[in-house]
Each structure stands twice: as structure tokens, then as C-alpha cells.
Amino acid sequence: MGTLFGFVVGYVIGARAGSEGFDDLLRALAAIRESEEYRGFVTSLREHVLHSVREVNQRLAVIADAQPEDDPIARARARLRD
Fold first, then answer.
1. CA 38 and chain centroid, separation
2. What whole-number distance in Å separates Cα of residue 16 and Cα of residue 56?
């Protein structure tokens, strides 16, 4: 969605300002991508995503390692069988 929005904004600005305005926009975007702030943002975002994925992985491992007696569905099934 963000890519589509960026494309539309770039198209509108380029159409209004001509090719020189579009080239200025591309230079500005390149300067943003090369900035330390942007690199720091991307690094922080990657670390956050990796932390979140690790946390989800740990929680799933706990669920997978749970004993059947800890599982309420398994207990209910066992009671129905008796």
C-alpha cells in the first residue's frame, strides 16, 4: 500500500512539476535513504521485527511442548471418553 501511495504521489508531483521536479524528488528521496536517521530507523525496525518473531517463536514452542494434561481440550476429550 505504501509503495502504491508513493507511486501516486511521485506521479502527481512529476506531472505538475515536469521532469525537473520529478528529478528533484528522486534526488531528495535518495538523500533521505542515504541519511543516518533513515539507516537508524531501518535498523531499529529490523530489530523490532526480529524481537517480535523470536517472542512469537518462543510462545509457540511453549505451546508445542505443553503436556497433554495441560491442554484443556485434551482434558475435555479425555473426560468425554471415560
1. 16
2. 47
